[in-house]
Amino acid sequence: MSFHFHPDAEAELSAAIQYYENVEPGLGNDFAVEVYSAVQRAIAYPRAWMIIDGQIRRSLVRRFPYGVLYSEESDGILIVGIMHLHRDPDYWKGRM
To answer: What is the domain extent for residue 9?
Structure first.
């Protein structure tokens, strides 16, 4: 199964990687690896994760306060957000 990012989700990922890289060199890479692992878990078990709204599910990122928001599509997983868990939980809803 494949995956693709909503453009805003891709921008969120890039911004978060840059933020963590500025905090400590190498931490951005660690964050990217953990996000990719969360994506891989969503691909492997697309219906295993909690539904947060409609068809949108959230796979949690280990070590970091983030979740990968996604929906299962006919051609794979659509990632609609890389959500910081301590911010507005509904910010992404305009993307659908």
So the answer is: 3-86
